[in-house]
């Protein structure tokens, strides 16, 4: 069975993957090293963009068919924002990617058409995970290899004059607001959005708040009301 790919949750039934995908097993690492008197200190590390080259093919018996397929291909893949890319032969891996460059190796071979798509990737993702946080510190295993953002959802069953999520490593979200039973609170670490029943509640964020990512491994977290937290595994 011919394998294909998905981008932004959509597939194109006209194309199939060819052998010859080229990509590093992990993102490039840009290291800043300070050297003084023969001693070397790592100052910071930045993860670079991963490049993926993927040969594809399709069948076109007529020139008009070729034009139609290329039109559908470019409408699908050329975007102004990052999209989620996945390949059938890489189960459990997704890439936050953009199409880069052109397809300058495109060629016709009888009815066959072949060329190479080039993507740049800013994040390599794994599975989506959910943890249920209680009101006492407990251990949770964060899977993946690198820090990851999170979202949370809290449905209040009793009134509360504030809400907190905190870790034993100093991270804490503090919201000062009079919540009532039935309220639904949603927090997005990456965008710093705080919404109550769908409406912005950023005004409730206390100055003492220390935003935190989830680090892979064992972490201890608690919330002042039972809370569902979601994250996506991230990989090197």
UniProtKB/TrEMBL annotation:
One Pfam match: SPP1_Dit
Classify the source by domain of life. Answer: Bacteria
Q: Which residues form the Siphovirus-type tail component C-terminal domain?
A: 143-235
Q: Which Gene3D superfamilies match?
A: 2.40.30.200, 2.60.120.860
Which spans are transmembrane here?
Answer: none
Q: Which residues form the Siphovirus-type tail component RIFT-related domain?
A: 19-121
The molecule here is called Phage tail protein
């Amino acid at each position: 069975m011919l394998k294909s790919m998905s981008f932004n949750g959509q597939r194109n039934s006209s194309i199939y993957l060819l052998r010859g995908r080229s990509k590093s097993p992990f993102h490039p690492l840009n290291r800043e090293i300070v050297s003084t008197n023969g001693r070397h200190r790592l100052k910071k590390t930045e993860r670079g963009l991963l490049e993926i080259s993927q040969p594809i093919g399709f069948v076109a018996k007529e020139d008009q068919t070729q034009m139609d397929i290329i039109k559908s291909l470019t409408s699908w893949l050329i975007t102004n924002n990052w999209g989620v890319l996945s390949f059938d032969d890489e189960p459990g891996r997704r890439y936050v990617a953009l199409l880069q460059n052109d397809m300058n190796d495109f060629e016709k071979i009888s009815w066959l058409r072949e060329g190479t798509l080039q993507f740049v990737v800013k994040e390599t993702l794994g599975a989506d995970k959910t943890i249920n946080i209680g009101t006492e510190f407990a251990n949770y295993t964060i899977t993946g290899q690198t820090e990851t953002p999170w979202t949370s959802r809290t449905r209040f069953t009793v009134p509360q004059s504030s809400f907190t999520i905190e870790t034993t490593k100093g991270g804490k979200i503090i919201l000062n607001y009079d919540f009532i039973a039935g309220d639904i609170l949603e927090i997005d670490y990456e965008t710093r959005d705080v919404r109550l029943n769908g409406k912005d509640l950023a005004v409730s964020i206390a100055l003492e708040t220390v935003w935190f990512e989830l680090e892979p491994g064992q972490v201890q977290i608690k919330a002042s009301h039972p809370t569902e937290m979601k994250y996506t595994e991230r990989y090197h």
